[in-house]
Design a protein that fits this description.
The protein is an alpha/beta fold and 256 residues long. It is built from three helices and 15 strands. The protein has a 15-stranded mixed sheet that branches.
């Protein structure tokens, strides 16, 4: 039904679909202009509609279908045209929200680290200024030139307290830098998603179809019209700020 809205927590099996479907995994025999959103989508035959998933598998792709995936689009046979095959981690995995959250958290951690480092440096400087006195005191006591006085004990105790504070600050610094490292690794992971993704057509492409890769850090998408013989299409990094769409026996260079 064209106006049907279906939402399921797990798997959905549908013969003919024209409405809106959200599921964990969806298998549709005939997609006829509907909208499907799931982690994994398997379509036997598609004529129109829009699919968003991590991985999309289509046995027969007709015309006027938009396929948007974060990891994989796999097509057995293309019989139509005016299709758009899009690799876009930003639209499928809430990438933009994640990146904004990571950026905000890194900024907070950086401010916290600067504050703790200031306290650490202050205590460390005080200990350095006291260390020479403490070394001289130990030498004089060893030579029995003086006896340990109450004032000495108070100063030694203060020194030990500062050493404890310095260790505490070091633990906090280690914790903050560990969180920063973990977040940066997450950022690298999500940025690398598109470089691991691919569009795989197991038959010949027909005319007037479009392939589009949307890199999270790029100003413009990487777009091409595939040739009939193109098989696997991926985005590869060819320099610090340079990427290219790669397909069998053909390269198109894109700059940003």
């Amino acid at each position: 039904h064209a106006k049907a809205i279906i939402g399921v927590d797990e798997n959905a099996e549908i013969s003919h679909h024209r409405g809106k479907l959200t599921a964990k995994e969806a298998h549709i025999i005939n997609l006829e202009g509907g909208v499907v959103r799931a982690e994994v989508v398997k379509i036997d035959k598609s004529n129109g509609g829009e699919i968003e998933a991590q991985r999309i598998y289509v046995k027969e792709l007709g015309s006027n279908t938009i396929l948007k995936a974060s990891e994989l689009i796999e097509i057995e046979l293309i019989t139509g045209d005016a299709n758009k095959c899009i690799i876009d981690p930003t639209g499928v995995t809430n990438h933009t929200d994640k990146m904004e959250g990571y950026s905000s958290k890194l900024k907070d951690l950086e401010n916290e680290l600067l504050s703790v480092m200031g306290d650490y440096d202050h205590i460390q400087n005080e200990l350095l200024s006291e260390k020479e006195w403490l070394t001289q005191l130990k030498q004089m006591l060893a030579r029995k030139e003086i006896q340990l006085q109450s004032a000495h004990k108070v100063r030694i105790k203060a020194y030990q307290i500062k050493e404890g504070k310095l260790n505490d600050y070091q633990l906090i610094i280690n914790e903050i830098t560990g969180q920063q490292r973990a977040i940066r690794e997450e950022i690298q992971y999500y940025d690398a998603l598109i470089l691991k993704a691919k569009i795989h057509c197991k038959s010949s492409w027909t005319e007037h179809n479009e392939v589009r890769f949307i890199h999270p850090q790029a100003d413009e998408p990487y777009v091409l019209s595939p040739r009939p013989e193109d098989n696997k299409i991926t985005l590869v990094k060819s320099g610090d700020d340079e990427y290219e769409l790669h397909k069998e026996f053909f390269r198109i260079r894109c700059y940003r």
